[in-house]
Amino acid sequence: MTRPAFLSDNEAGTDPRILAALVAANEGLALPYGADDLSAQARALCCEVFEREVFVFPTPTGTAANGLSLAALTPPYGAILCHEAAHILTSEAGAAEFFTSGARLIALPGAEGRFSAETLRAALESIAADGVRQPRPAAISLTQASESGTVYTLAETREIAGIAHGAGLRVHMDGARFANALVHLGCPPAEATWKAGVDILSFGLTKNGGMNTDAIIVFDAGIAAELNHRCKRAGLAQSKMRFASAQILASLAGGLWLDNARRANANAQRLAGALAGCAGATLAQPVEANEIFVCLPEPVLAALAGAGIVLRPWPGPQPGLCRLVTSFADDEALIARFLAVVAPYSSQPVTTPLTS
Amino acid sequence: MTRPAFLSDNEAGTDPRILAALVAANEGLALPYGADDLSAQARALCCEVFEREVFVFPTPTGTAANGLSLAALTPPYGAILCHEAAHILTSEAGAAEFFTSGARLIALPGAEGRFSAETLRAALESIAADGVRQPRPAAISLTQASESGTVYTLAETREIAGIAHGAGLRVHMDGARFANALVHLGCPPAEATWKAGVDILSFGLTKNGGMNTDAIIVFDAGIAAELNHRCKRAGLAQSKMRFASAQILASLAGGLWLDNARRANANAQRLAGALAGCAGATLAQPVEANEIFVCLPEPVLAALAGAGIVLRPWPGPQPGLCRLVTSFADDEALIARFLAVVAPYSSQPVTTPLTS
Amino acid sequence: MTRPAFLSDNEAGTDPRILAALVAANEGLALPYGADDLSAQARALCCEVFEREVFVFPTPTGTAANGLSLAALTPPYGAILCHEAAHILTSEAGAAEFFTSGARLIALPGAEGRFSAETLRAALESIAADGVRQPRPAAISLTQASESGTVYTLAETREIAGIAHGAGLRVHMDGARFANALVHLGCPPAEATWKAGVDILSFGLTKNGGMNTDAIIVFDAGIAAELNHRCKRAGLAQSKMRFASAQILASLAGGLWLDNARRANANAQRLAGALAGCAGATLAQPVEANEIFVCLPEPVLAALAGAGIVLRPWPGPQPGLCRLVTSFADDEALIARFLAVVAPYSSQPVTTPLTS
Amino acid sequence: MTRPAFLSDNEAGTDPRILAALVAANEGLALPYGADDLSAQARALCCEVFEREVFVFPTPTGTAANGLSLAALTPPYGAILCHEAAHILTSEAGAAEFFTSGARLIALPGAEGRFSAETLRAALESIAADGVRQPRPAAISLTQASESGTVYTLAETREIAGIAHGAGLRVHMDGARFANALVHLGCPPAEATWKAGVDILSFGLTKNGGMNTDAIIVFDAGIAAELNHRCKRAGLAQSKMRFASAQILASLAGGLWLDNARRANANAQRLAGALAGCAGATLAQPVEANEIFVCLPEPVLAALAGAGIVLRPWPGPQPGLCRLVTSFADDEALIARFLAVVAPYSSQPVTTPLTS
């Protein structure tokens, strides 16, 4: 069976510069559990990158980062509001319920993978009206970039976070693809997070060139103190922490993480631009990060298949819907081949950004 | 401040051969979540090593391996019996309670870090007599090697496991230092585990040369099916699984794990042999794996300090108690220096194995 | 403010015959925690009523009965499928998540408060296709009578339970209004429960004349053994159990529970029959138990209000939707007054049963 | 088999005056879930009795009161320090772990069923020194009266609570026999609770004349808001709340609860006074509330048995240890018979209070 092309940003290995940093980190002995020098450097660099004191908790997966973050914001009798397509709801096997000891995820609808401020406000009012019969809303979770490959604008984030805070909730951002969202927004990390009202960030590194490390970025000392315990209790405090920290350092130093995200996003624009020009093709979602959801007509799919390029069908009501995910490690030869196959079907190539 | 010598087997980096395997594993794309080739090979090699079908769940820490394992054996209303010094009870911040959703750890006393079959039997009878007022005993956990650096004999393991099974409990082995125990026992892994009644093993690799991977080894398909869900739900299913699998493969292939453990154990014998011969020195525990608990007289401590060798004081009733942990990565020059300092105090060097 | 009429079947006090039984039960000393004579009699009578060995766990609320029951069927990493309007999902503040330690409730749509066999089958297939990313379905919960005042037929229950069992799930019935459903079905309790595939029943007594006791009826000895522990651990094992058992005994003895349910259902038919004949009135749901959901035109509402009868508005898309709940303790004078007010608006009184 | 005399204060039925209040409460309809008049009156009376605003949560058992209280004070990653004989640790099947979602109970030693301020201080220091490897201490629980039938003095309570608060912990009092402790102390409820530093009280009523209601008394509005959710979520919010409130009202009104406790305590003094004078008899604990732990010589046990009075053997190292529990419902004829049997063995009856 031919493996689908652009299957996932989990397929790539480790960025060579991050791998080199891991090899370098292997020298000599080091104190365990984050008392080593590299971990101190990683913390300092995160503070610099986010332009304030932050607390950093490396985690082996994004699910762990999400679960711990939500647990720090939500009591067991609480509720978390998120988009109905949020990864924490659809794809993490109940991790949110596990880490929070039984809080409930409440799904909010919304076009293009985002829920609106108005939808949030209405949901909170409806739940409040039902009183003690409902789990108490304690947090919201924004997926940035969203599961549809779209990005909340800064204004949207600020308005949503403002409503949440006004109602006594705190704000989690699931940033498994945070770098991709950030380069789309074109703003500093601080603007996209704590300055916009985000209380805690699941900071994705693995999809963007890391080997096996994401991180929680915490903007509050009290939450950080609590996470110290929760992280250990969840089996997520690594003894040889230097190897997680080395990945964070190498990723952030010199902006490698942003370069990688720019490349992934640019590749998505190239592919989507070609596809959008095909007669009968429809982009199911605006392309703002590194994911493309597109409905392709049979001839295009056949031509691609003829060139050995199979795409991943994606569940949904639209016929012929496929998902493509680009990454820092995309094969230029594959992209060139893809574009060449598609070109004949593309009467008018789209060159402007394909965003909303 | 001088860093203590022989502080912990968490200080070392990655064994160079395992690091090389990680670098090699970085080539090309690979399916995520364990669907890659290296993961298949790692599973196959584990089956070979344990001489039967086993199921393998890589975890980023030993605490995660213990927590998941115990959760698979114990319902939330259950209890787990373990030694009063067991790591799961004393050092994991309540991970057992977290993963099991609130089961209770029941501490059993026992000399040299081990509890006896008789102690287990008496405890089970006492709990059963109290009926529904007690959490229902569902599992035991054996730490092998123990927190005192000692090793349950095969006969002890078999008898204890037999009592557990007879009472409807299942048997977990916390093998953070399983390799060290195994080379002390001098038997195949199968003899030390499932053939002796162990149902699930936390298989330590990180302390023994790995970078950031331990593993759960499951001997039962039903438990494995359950762990598939639990592992994902706990944020422990890594996307780029090939890097965990590469560590397991490199560690097991060619017996690297046993070689490393042999070296660590041999170093412990060398150090302990020298120390045991010192007038006024007392080994607080038999030295059977890679840990030494020793009470040293002031002159010896002073002489070591004079040579820049500070030891880690260990809490306990004995004055001058220190812990030394050896590893695959011990510095031969440091060992030589250590032995040279101690020699003048050691009237009669002990050369026979220092075990019970 | 005028209290709404027919507000809830929780408003009534205790049936006088059950109250008398409580007074009688107060004589002398009795062994605690269910070792008393009345508790033995209650268990025996339940076995007789259900025509087989059953295990009985009195609980102080229906929510406790539901939560414990679901926990006995569902592991923490599991999922429970139920109707989107099920009380366990909409009105119990996350009790299902609490008792199960974090399982997830999955909402199924369905007209008239019931989900269909086909809906269940499709949902199970869809979840199974998504593999380990989803909580593992472990149980379904049928609300009987449903939150819409309707009743699953025996054939529906059997078909749904068959699909659940075929997929490895077990079947819970939330019978907060089980007696009302049963008299509608006109069959013995055994037919409506274990013979139809129900594994565990939340048996509502409080709404039907009890003071403060519902019960879990278990049809399986293994589940019962587990519930012994869970019940104690949840603070639900009452010391002076004789007072719970006395309520169960008095309720079941001589069929008082069925008489009370018949009276409540008959009252619902009388009220609904009158309302359904009013021009502009619409029954939003078939009336099969003791609840009426009806949209009433303004003149009828005004006439009732003029007679001091205010109805409880019910949230929903239909304008003027109200809910009326009848009970064993309905005031005949109030009913007569109600019917008299409505009569002029009711051109053609409906006399046939108002069921689907 | 002869039932032991003075077996438990759970054997008695309901105090006739409380039963009468239940019968009276049955009149008419009432709003459910605590919105009824009796519940408002019960809350008001509790405020009066405790001389400040308090929040009242009726519970069906003391275990439920303890579990909810501890959950309100302790996060899932926390620890609760209590006496090694505390009911929450020894007799509630893991309810503390259940309600807190996995916090740990840490056992403190102490003579006569009480731990000392010094023991608490040392334990907190030891745990703090171990950092993140330990669950974070969040609460202490004082059992008042203790499981040994003794009572913390006001000075002891204040000192212990002061240490707890100083270390950032909060204070729970398990008052299953609070009334018995209070009449021993001879002070107002306020002095024994919030004025001494107690943050939340499990207020026992069932053993002291109630039918099936204890209560949580909360001294803090924030905790109360949280308990509103937790109580509902645990299936402990009763629909026909008036019947719980009626018991609270009848118990507190006119001091019935204190009269009942005085009678129980006085009976304990009478029995213990007679036993303490017997040659060869030893009180194992001071008798300060309504429990007697006594080692009796064989002739006395035989004489009692000859009169049909069997005592309950109690586990412990002392030969012949028995426990007797007195209550408001003790049979005067039985007491007279008991005293008559014992008198011949009692050379010098003890008439002064048998307390420390």
TrEMBL record, chains A, B, C, D:
It is an enzyme of class 4 (lyase). It comes from the Bacteria. GO terms for biological process: amino acid metabolic process. The keyword Cell membrane does not apply. Its EC number is 4.1.2.48. Residues 6-294 form the Aromatic amino acid beta-eliminating lyase/threonine aldolase domain. Pfam families: Beta_elim_lyase (PF01212). Keywords: Lyase, Pyridoxal phosphate. Its cofactor is pyridoxal 5'-phosphate. One of its GO terms (molecular function) is lyase activity. Belongs to the threonine aldolase family. Homotetramer. This is Low specificity L-threonine aldolase. It comes from Pseudogemmobacter humi.
